[in-house]
Design brief:
The complex is a heterodimer of chains A (about 400) and B (about 90). Chain A has about 400 residues and is of the alpha/beta class. Chain A contains 15 helices and 15 strands. Chain A is about 40% helix and about 15% strand. In chain A, a hairpin with a 6-residue loop joins strand 11 and strand 12. With about 90 residues, chain B is mostly helical. The longest helix of chain B has 16 residues. Chain B contains four helices and no strands. In chain B, about 55% of the residues lie in helices and about 0% in strands. The chains are: A alpha/beta (about 400), B mainly alpha (about 90). The structure holds pyridoxal-5'-phosphate. The site of pyridoxal-5'-phosphate has 14 residues of chain A, from helix 5.
């Protein structure tokens, strides 16, 4: 028995994708010149798939904060917070998150992935039930697997289905933890949080967790996410998020008004048994959080950029998966066409994400773009011209076959 | 209803719900593999499970779905949950 036998179907599919050009799952950006430009295969490439929503990865104040913190506190924490203790920076960043959200409790984690693992598996114990949206991110599914609770699934963005499932579970004891995302990362659609909150309120003993990984810093007047934009922050029990996108660092967080959140520090393995985030990340994220508070114009800019690309792609005749948001997914008819289109764009100096099943809902084959506040309107126009050329080449190739 | 007919009825209903995954002409048996024979990946499996849950008014926890390879396994899971619901 070869330990790698199980990967045969995966390898066959990977070979087919590689045969069509370069490896979309192993691309190297040789140098990063700015939040929106990198060097790929020696070519200057416009980056339109980074999740660097506010463009803060090169912000001078964030960089200075990270440098200063490294000089003061070193490169790593070399251990977990239960073993080595917390650094002042962890505590201060948690305070900053409490203030930013106006919530009583906040915890930072080493990544957003671990924030979901720690929060979901920590909260939902034996006898409880997790109700997860069917389009959930891998970190949510893995949190469910790690949890002692049972998980059931409801249809994506379908509050009525959630309502029926909760009704069916009413005689089962235990708490119910509903898990949804604010902005869905692949298609760029948002959750109807108002309706989800209303459903939650109809079922005593149920709690709502919203992963605002992609919506934090982007949605809502203050940048607190889709729950703020929908005016339902009071109805959301737990907000989870990441530092890896609009905050341009690495790490994750959870905030809540429930004092019980603090128990995760002594009861949740993905918090307890991994090294805490390093000083540089804490410091740049603390500064980035200030900037989200102080610079609402960043939000205005990313939405204007998103609209420019969204409208332009629609005019070029592309089929877009969702209404306007900073995540714009283009539907292509099949995997081969999507791979070809992605390669043509890289050839032309445009980087977007290639998203294929089973990583996408309903077998969709997508080119996924994410905008940044740091994109210049001229860059977006250039991206649109290159998309137009790609579209024409695809049509020519299709006609030739 | 004898247990046998009930089991048959559940298997029939489950195969009925396979819908678009059902290969034209081919016979679905309890040994038919969901992945290898019917091309049902993890995402498609979730949709199928939700249809089955709504049809039978039962809850099939996701962690049990992972152990399921064949249509027979799936029908077995449904049978267990239907029995649990009937007490
Ligand atoms: C919805 C969602 N949740 C969580 C994460 C995990 O965040 P991180 O990259 O910080 O691990 C991501 C993205 O990576 C995501 O898209």
């Amino acid at each position: 028995m070869d330990i790698f036998d199980k990967f045969k179907p995966t390898m066959a599919r990977r070979s087919a994708v590689l045969a069509a050009g370069r490896n979309p799952f192993g691309l190297t950006v040789e140098r990063v010149l700015s939040p929106t430009v990198g060097i790929i295969e020696g070519r200057e490439t416009i980056l339109v798939g980074t999740n660097n929503y506010l463009g803060l990865s090169f912000d001078p104040a964030c960089i200075d904060a990270a440098l200063q913190a490294t000089k003061e506190d070193g490169t790593g924490t070399t251990g977990s917070r239960i073993a080595n203790g917390s650094f002042g920076r962890h505590v201060r960043l948690e305070e900053a998150f409490r203030r930013f959200f106006g919530k009583g409790h906040a915890i930072v984690f080493s990544t957003g992935y671990q924030a979901n693992l720690a929060t979901i598996a920590g909260l939902a114990g034996e006898g409880d039930t997790i109700l997860a949206d069917s389009d959930s991110h891998a970190s949510i599914w893995d949190g469910c697997r790690l949890a002692a609770a049972e998980t059931v699934v409801f249809r994506h963005n379908d509050p009525d289905h959630l309502d029926r499932r909760l009704a069916r579970l009413k005689d089962k004891g235990g708490a119910k933890l509903i898990v949804v995302e604010g902005l869905y990362s692949i298609l760029g659609d948002t959750a109807p949080l108002k309706e989800f909150v209303a459903v939650k309120r109809r079922h005593p003993g149920s709690y709502l967790l919203v992963d605002e990984a992609h919506s934090f810093g982007v949605f809502g007047e203050k940048g607190r996410g889709v729950a703020e934009a929908e005016g339902v922050e009071d109805g959301v029990d737990f907000v989870v998020g990441t530092f890896s996108k609009s905050l341009a660092g690495i790490g994750g967080f959870a905030v809540s008004d429930h004092a019980g959140l603090e128990l995760l520090r002594v009861a949740s393995r993905p918090y307890m048994f991994t090294a805490s985030p390093n000083p540089a990340a804490m410091a740049s994220v603390t500064e980035a959080l200030h900037q989200i508070e102080r610079r609402p114009e960043l939000r205005a800019r990313i939405w204007a950029n998103a609209k420019r690309l969204h409208d332009g792609l629609e005019q070029l005749g592309f089929t877009l998966a969702a209404p306007l948001s900073p995540v714009i997914a283009i539907r292509l008819p099949d995997e081969a066409t999507a791979v070809r289109a992605w390669n043509l764009l890289i050839d032309a100096g445009v980087y977007v994400n290639l998203a294929l099943p089973p990583g996408t809902p309903n077998g969709a084959c997508l080119l996924r773009c994410s905008l940044s506040a740091a994109h210049e309107p001229d860059q977006i126009d250039e991206v649109l011209r290159r998309f137009e050329t790609m579209r024409d080449r695809l049509e020519m190739q299709a006609a030739a076959e | 209803m004898t247990p046998t007919t009930n089991e048959d009825a559940i298997f029939e209903a489950v195969t009925g719900l396979l819908g678009r995954h059902r290969p034209a002409g081919a016979v679905v048996t309890p040994a038919t593999e969901l992945g290898a024979d019917l091309n049902i990946d993890s995402v498609a499996a979730m949709d199928l499970i939700m249809e089955i849950e709504d049809h039978f008014e039962i809850d099939i926890p996701v962690n049990q779905v992972g152990d399921m390879r064949t249509v027979g396994d799936l029908a077995g899971l449904v049978r267990k949950e239907v029995a649990a619901k009937q007490g």
